[in-house]
Amino acid sequence: MSRKLVRPSYDQALQILRSQSFDVKSFSGVANGSLVSKHGVAAVLVPGQTKDQPTAFAIHPGVLVRGEVARLLDRGYQKFIKTSQYELPATAAQLQAIHTFSEELKLWIGDVSLYNESLGTTSDLYQYDRLKGREAAQPSAARPWELADGH
């Protein structure tokens, strides 16, 4: 029998997080946003738009660098921590902290934990160096079944 997922309201979720040793503060960068942090990792939560999802992520979990939640960037060969000013290689300890924080946060706010996310840390953005510039329009392939001269 499947277990029913309990989703607390936004205010209840913030209270639960405070009781679980999360640091919860208002976040001025997002309307109605709350910065939730623990062990050097943070995320910004906002009230959800639907009854099915009372709490939503405005900024997904990332390492807290000088008061800014850093974005996790994957370049194929290594993950990076990216802020508006810095881009630093991510350490194994940082990746483990993000993963642990994400799983614990999702548990307490009643969010769904997906299988691929529970295996390890997933990135917000994937930029592979070998694929850079491939977005440019490529000439269309020749179609031998179409007549070129209009005959």
What is the gist of this entry?
It is built from three helices and nine strands, in the order αββββββββααβ. By secondary structure, it is of the alpha+beta class.
In words, what does this structure look like?
- The structure is a single chain.
- This protein has 151 residues and is of the alpha+beta class.
- The protein is built from three helices and nine strands, in the order H-E-E-E-E-E-E-E-E-H-H-E.
- It has a five-stranded antiparallel beta sheet, covered by helices on one side. The chain has a four-stranded mixed beta sheet with strand order 8-7-6-9, with no helix packed on it.
- Strand 1 (23-27) and strand 2 form a beta hairpin.
- The protein is extended and about 75 Å long.
- 21% of the residues are buried.
Keywords:
single chain; 151 residues; alpha+beta; four-stranded mixed beta sheet; 3 helices
Task: Provide the fold topology.
Blueprint: H1 10-19, E1 23-27, E2 33-38, E3 41-47, E4 55-65, E5 68-69, E6 71-74, E7 79-82, E8 87-89, H2 92-109, H3 115-119, E9 125-126
Parallel strand pairs: 6-9
Antiparallel strand pairs: 1-2, 2-3, 3-4, 4-5, 6-7, 7-8
Describe the main β-sheet briefly.
5 strands, antiparallel
> How many strand elements?
9
Number of helices: 3
Low-confidence stretches: none
Radius of gyration: 21 Å
N- and C-termini, Cα separation? 66 Å
Secondary structure class reads: alpha+beta
Average pLDDT reading: 81
Order of helices and strands: HEEEEEEEEHHE
Tell me the β content. 25-35%
Helix content: 10-25%
3D shape:
extended
Main-sheet strand order equals 1-2-3-4-5
